[in-house]
Amino acid sequence: MLGLYRTNLVAFNSMGYQMWQVDQDPANMAFLDAAPVGSIYQKSGQPVDNDFVFLTAVGYRSIGVAGANSNLQAGSFGKNVDPLVKASIKALAVGDEPRALFYPGTGQYWGIFSNQAYVLTMNGAAADMSWSRYLFPSSVDYSTVNGGVLYLRSGNLVWQLSDDALYDDIVDVNTHVAFTGNITWPFLDFGTLGVDKDLEGIDLVCTGSATINIGYDQTNFASVTPSYVIAGDTLPGGGMIPFPMTAPSFQFSLTFAAGQAWEWEALNVYVTPTGKT
């Protein structure tokens, strides 16, 4: 794999990469650095802001983090989606190749596997980065940015990504593909591991209608509460939504209904320890 890191050329093989200063004058070319951080996925690398993001055997990494520490386990970059990405790598069919794009309009790096994309959104500092997974009706074969707008090609279809489109494959009001949005947190301990806590309730700051359920058993992800419908922002005049339950940790999952422009901002959780183990 070849790519650009800032103004330098980076050349990867399966065992590592070399970084070269390049110039029209060969006398100004120079070998700058090397690290045992490799990649065999030729179309997965993209310059992202002041960094370079690429796919490895263990997930998505960046030169700014993994390269500086000379190993793929350094830092937290990409760790949030590592299990999903590893599963996608194992599921690759013969001839399939992960690809990537960078969309400046949203500050997003897209790592594409067939009909799904792992999307890193850059909102400022490293602490403001977030990963999402987009699922499409069919495989994404090609992509380009034209006039500041992102276009994707899938077979004979060309998709234009738009903030105004609340459905996929829109033909008319009766012909489209609905999609929902989901945010799921990992299990949160809210203090000492293994100690029961009393959940009193939640406040949710969001735009749009959503359903929420809460997982309470890390050994069985199917152990969740019934879904509760929330019409939108619960803070103004609504107060805390009671959700009384006791468990060592909790997993919150929000699913936003299709056909709406939704946004999540905050989830406030009221929890007290019980002192029981």
- Number of helical segments with 4 or more residues: 2
Number of strands: 23
Q: What topology, given as strand order, has the largest sheet?
A: 1-2-3-4
Q: Percent of residues in beta strands?
A: over 45%
Q: Fraction of residues in helices?
A: under 10%
Low-confidence stretches: none
How many domains? The number is: 2
Counting helices, strands and paired strands, the structural category is mainly beta
Report how far apart the termini are.
Answer: 51 Å
Largest sheet features: 4 strands, antiparallel
- Estimate the global geometry from the Cα principal axes: globular
The Rg value, from CA coordinates, equals: 22 Å
Order of helices and strands: EEEEEEEHHEEEEEEEEEEEEEEEE
- Mean residue pLDDT: 88
Would you give an account of this structure?
The strands form 7 sheets. This protein has a 4-stranded antiparallel sheet with strand order 1-2-3-4, covered by helices on one side. The protein has a 4-stranded antiparallel sheet with strand order 8-9-10-11, with helices on one face. Strands 17-22-19-20 form a 4-stranded antiparallel sheet, with no helix packed on it. The protein has 2 domains: 2-135; 182-273, no CATH class. The mean pLDDT is 88. With 277 residues, it is mainly beta. The protein is built from 2 helices and 23 strands.
Notable traits:
277 residues; mainly beta; 2 domains
